[in-house]
Amino acid sequence: MLKKILIQPDYILAWENENFKLVSFGEIIIEGDEITYLGPRREHNRKKFSKTIKGDLVMPGFVNTHTHAAMTLFRGYADDMPLLEWLGEKIWPAEAKLKKDDIYWGSMLAICEMIKGGTTCFADMYFHMEEVARACTEAGIRASLAQGLIGTDKLKGSISLKKNENLVRNWHKAGEGRITVMLGPHAPYTCPPEFLQKIMKTAEKLEVPIHIHLAETRKEIEESLQTYGKTPIKFVDDLGLFEHNILAAHCVHLSREEIDILAEKKVAIAHNPGSNLKLGSGIAPLADLLEKELLVSLGTDGAASNNNLDMVEEMRLASLLPKGLKENATIAPAEIALKLATINGPKALFLDETVGPLKKGAKADLIVVQLKKPHLFPLHDVVAHLVYSAAASDVDLVMVNGKILMEKRELLTVDEEKILFETQKRATKLLAGLN
Amino acid sequence: MLKKILIQPDYILAWENENFKLVSFGEIIIEGDEITYLGPRREHNRKKFSKTIKGDLVMPGFVNTHTHAAMTLFRGYADDMPLLEWLGEKIWPAEAKLKKDDIYWGSMLAICEMIKGGTTCFADMYFHMEEVARACTEAGIRASLAQGLIGTDKLKGSISLKKNENLVRNWHKAGEGRITVMLGPHAPYTCPPEFLQKIMKTAEKLEVPIHIHLAETRKEIEESLQTYGKTPIKFVDDLGLFEHNILAAHCVHLSREEIDILAEKKVAIAHNPGSNLKLGSGIAPLADLLEKELLVSLGTDGAASNNNLDMVEEMRLASLLPKGLKENATIAPAEIALKLATINGPKALFLDETVGPLKKGAKADLIVVQLKKPHLFPLHDVVAHLVYSAAASDVDLVMVNGKILMEKRELLTVDEEKILFETQKRATKLLAGLN
């Protein structure tokens, strides 16, 4: 018989007519991996449930649609440097030393941090991705994984693409369906047109989406104009990339025309406000993207450029930045920001038939948030508090696919202490000898 | 005999040649309210100490140089609205209903939150300030308090100024010296020139500094140009305000010339990046202020416009915003941001002879931060981690004036549960009937 879990919190952030709806004194029942009831609270024979959970607020988990999980190993290793210098002088030499096991442990550290901050699903683009898949399977988190593909060297590009194909074959829909796979062309400036075309053909053949960095820095735009006589967005659009299912990370430097292209072609965007600020890349035009009703989700990017994987922080930044930039306090209000951080994520990862708003029939990816804390008092508006006042550490319980991964802030599926020990040891060794 | 406390943490963020210096395996001794030793770790007879504290990192507490503490009561009550509409339609009608006891409890809630986030000292400008002073005295936090002075009604202005004078007489240097008082003219647009002059005379007579809002919104600049033919900065400078010790909050909209004036007149600035974003006021030109070597400190502003009193968040915003805005990752590096949030605060509050960097002879205002958490691993760079990765909830212990206010995240001087209960009750009652 399927395990049945009953949740009876003070509030449920439910969903009605494409909007959040706060339900007081409701309840949720989970059978196996699925929500089978969400509605008014009822009397029950508690013996029918393997577990009963109380709590202040139940809501959908955060979905981090762009990160490089194992880069946690480089957190704080190289800061206050511009993107290309940071990559060339610090990150690439360090990455060249990464072994399979490092990727496993670095990803595990990221997963620890993400679960502790209420992230139930993330999209990763890196290498040795079968190690990331293994970590996700063990930890119980949901993930959309892509091999980072760089085609400047043709042979290496082919090998990587083959690895990405194998990742699809071996891991797509693995881990009780929690793992899905995309193809991961790194960026137009690292993937020549022929390589991108090959990737598109593979995506079509394997029926998987594509995750790519686009229009991150001004320098990228300038170089694309020099090389191809067009911007990265125009370049990949002309190549036919946007005929596929695309998750485009960053999209910081966009013209009005390019925003229209992204809207028309229904490109999903992973907005990474923290990383874009920290690397001096710029500030994406979120107000314009929202106005054009683009599908915007939120990502933390890797922990070497953020420097954490805190989705509450990204949600707040996403909401605050356009207000300040445009000097208009009404842009990106709390409810919109909360959508970006939660239910827009699964849409951007093409997982919205599986997870998203809390409702009957959806897989049970949810979190319980503590509201009885000084910084969340008094409680006038739950959604405003989540976006403008809350912290990642207010998350008390995390459930993915019906399984509890954290309870009372204790991680249940991974050994946190061992992960901290292993990552410190490996990072110290990796970076010894590098400048 | 004075109580002696020994702290032996893994790291101490000490101070040498005007810079932070990370000391490994050092120790701090506190006798009464003062640091009497900071240096290499030694052998001790533990019986000589009333308490021994271990921990990961000891550092100076955060200093929040601009807030309106009791506005916690309105947290989440009115969001996503522009400043003047927010004030006129929501905040002022609600404030009109505030009673003395509300101010006490609202301030207590703020103090709870601030202590829990590692803030050891704050500057407040509001009303019924003797209630705030009472709350600070009980809670043990350090504070610089000012009565908010509005002079558009002459009689009310005089009464307020009298209250501020009484606040100086009754509370300046009270609470074992933890409470100091400033005069609090609200802003040039609410204080006519004659009133400002009267305030300046009073400041001179009582020998106290002045805390004022300056150049917060574009509208304020435009109205000042219309009314006085000059910007707020030029207007108050011509009046002679900057000949006094001034703490100027916000300073968002500044010309090059005005920045030079502020620099020349050594005006201390309370930069409030979060509130300025959220109210759509704009983004202060921090890069320029740093370039001109102005004394910049950080404030959260009130919890109705922030919506929390989290100094770690302000510190991170202060560091990230100019990088993104100027597309230059080298601006406001971690160490500078940490200075803004810690040791620049006491300077801006004219308290730097009392507190600031951790060193022998300073009053013991310090915090212990936990570093053994996934989001702070691996530990390559403590300062970078504090600014780019840490969270307010990583603060484990808070000491002000040698007294422990929080230990293992438990508040020791105030009754947290009662404060949450009282503030929820009062806020609900206050806002009932308002739209």
Task: Please tell me about this protein's structure.
- Two copies of one chain form a homodimer.
- By secondary structure, chain A is an alpha/beta fold.
- The first copy, chain A, has a domain at 4-60 and 355-408: Urease, subunit C, domain 1 (Roll).
- In chain A, 38% of the residues lie in helices and 23% in strands.
- Chain A has 15 helices and 19 strands.
- Chain A has a seven-stranded mixed sheet with strand order 3-2-7-16-17-18-19, with helices on one face. In chain A, strands 5-4-1-6 form a four-stranded mixed sheet, with no helix packed on it.
- The longest helix of chain A is centred in the middle third of the chain and has 18 residues, at 154-171.
- The radius of gyration of chain A is 21 Å and the shape is globular.
- The first copy, chain A, starts with a strand and ends with a helix.
- The model of chain A has no long low-confidence stretch (mean pLDDT 97).
- The interface between A and B is large, with 73 and 73 residues.
Secondary-structure blueprint of this entry?
The structure is a homodimer of 435-residue chains.
Chain A lengths: L3 E4 L3 E6 L2 E6 L1 E6 L2 E7 L10 E3 L3 E4 L1 E6 L15 H13 L4 H17 L2 E8 L2 H11 L2 E8 L4 H18 L7 E7 L7 H14 L3 E5 L3 H11 L3 H8 L6 E5 L5 H9 L3 E4 L1 H6 L7 H6 L4 E3 L12 H16 L7 H8 L2 H5 L17 E4 L12 H7 L6 E6 L2 E5 L2 E2 L4 H16 L4
Parallel strand pairs in A: 1-6, 2-7, 8-9, 9-10, 10-11, 12-13, 13-14, 14-15
Antiparallel strand pairs in A: 1-4, 2-3, 4-5, 7-16, 16-17, 17-18, 18-19
Helix pairs in contact in A: 2-3, 2-15, 4-5, 11-12, 12-14
